[in-house]
């Protein structure tokens, strides 16, 4: 394998908490609609709405809020009251203002690797929201490049690793989502490192790749510098 | 002035229609709430909500829809019904699916200039929505680079013109918004060309710059290749 020069990091639930805020909001959503639908049914309907709306809204909090409002109207058969909808909007705005909680080892791993590699942030979601989280994270200066994208496809990874590095063959992508971070990065020709997070959004679930020498799985980011070092030593 | 090498174009209401779709939706919004508020008052409240929410939602259709829902709840003092809110959501989804209407001379001007200059698209709004419009416009292949940004500041223009060209001193920005396209581009050191559009969103209004030899105003894009040619000839 070609020498590694470039390492891409996913942001949400790889460097900082994200899904836990969505889950908190979903709990509040279920409480607001407790009289109209049981939580399990509501979660199903919300997932279906998110899936159906993804092509219109893309990833991020604003689309999530619009999907919640849509589901609130559906499950109440049009009887949900305006104050409940106002609460959903407030919950969304609170998500957009929540403080950033870095995940353990995120800063140390980035600092250790930024000295020797081109370190990139590659994330999807609402543009402004991702920029805010990056600014609040205090990690901004460690990145050689930041790419906020609408989709994570092999073509998009290939283009980013060509633009900021030396192509996908010399790159690695690190993230908590097999579906968005690992599988398409592998398909682009890069290495893929899965760092599982306890909570994964239903729309991000996928099976791990079959025996692929470019695929790695680590329990947390403290293991990343060692993995990169081992790969560098192993390169002939 | 240094030789021009790079020309940035705004997208919405510079290359294709945008504000007219927002106005159509606002008319529909006013009809939906005709019993609760007169159109003038409603427009004021909506503008105030958009201004207040800009820091949370950024620019784009999804934030606009959330602001409309918020205002519908406000002006009805919480009595707006769920079916009306569902209509607002549908109107927003239709905006996200509307066909792209190129403005006159957009394609010709771009084609004429793309042969000799680095032509960039620099736009704000929802990431996915702007990507969709670019894909539908059929103009994608003419651009050397595409930047979808959350804000248009002098620093952002300087960074983009450094990344894709030879710096702001050798760049020009073309757009319908004095506030977003012309003034910050001038402040970055670039030339700024204002191409007014009949409809301008209240939050984009600004006064033209005082006597600045790098500021130009043209009635439509058919005048742009001639302006660029004249500037090139005038450069010593």
Would you give an account of this structure?
In chain A, strands 3-2-1-4-5-6 form a 6-stranded parallel beta sheet, with helices on both faces. By secondary structure, chain A is of the alpha/beta class. Chain A contains 9 helices and 6 strands. In chain A, helix 8 links the parallel strand 4 and strand 5. Chain A folds into 2 domains: 147 residues, Rossmann fold (3-Layer(aba) Sandwich); 77 residues, DNA polymerase, domain 1, CATH 1.10.150.240. Helix content of chain A is 49%, strand content 12%. The mean pLDDT of chain A is 94. At the A-B interface, helix 3, helix 4 and helix 6 of A face helix 3, helix 4 and helix 6 of B.
